[in-house]
Amino acid sequence: MTAASGVPRVAPGGIREVGTVNWLVCRVAGRAAGTGPPNLFRTLARRRGLFRGWLWFAGRLMPGGSLPRRETELVILRVAHLRGCRYEFDHHVRLGRRAGVRERDVERLKEGPRADGWTPRERAVLAAVDELHADRDLADGTWTRLRAHLSEGECVELAVLAGHYEMLATVITALRVQPDHVRER
């Protein structure tokens, strides 16, 4: 997994570039994440209306989704690992701790859905994430295994969640968003 190389293609904005409301949102998000205002937020907030629309959408998936928070973080971490997106991976390791994702889970995530220790539901979810990443689709057998554990609505949310974090990894990589600085406690 690599960090975004070089300098940011779009520098994270300050209060003048992102506006007072967006700046406050960035500060609150940083506090929640244990960092300063996140570079991703400060970069996206340069397009003020787009940022607020994205934030509303993203918030409906995490933390406001119907999937269990631990599971949501496992999905995000697996996508970040598969995409080699260090920014998203490190950010969600920190957030995942609060949702019950332990260090051994993070190490198993790197191995994938076949690693020992996953519940049958977690294994089905992670296998679906891997398949969505590799094929941009789910085979009928994968769908059947997933439906043994998730409702149709949860399957929709899972597909949107995985797809959203694939998109976000692309944006982070293309814009060369740099890692956030973790606040000292």
TrEMBL record:
It holds the Pfam family CMD. Residues 50-131 form the Carboxymuconolactone decarboxylase-like domain. One of its GO terms (molecular function) is peroxiredoxin activity. Transmembrane segments: none annotated. InterPro entries: AhpD-like, CMD-like. It comes from the Bacteria. This is Carboxymuconolactone decarboxylase family protein.
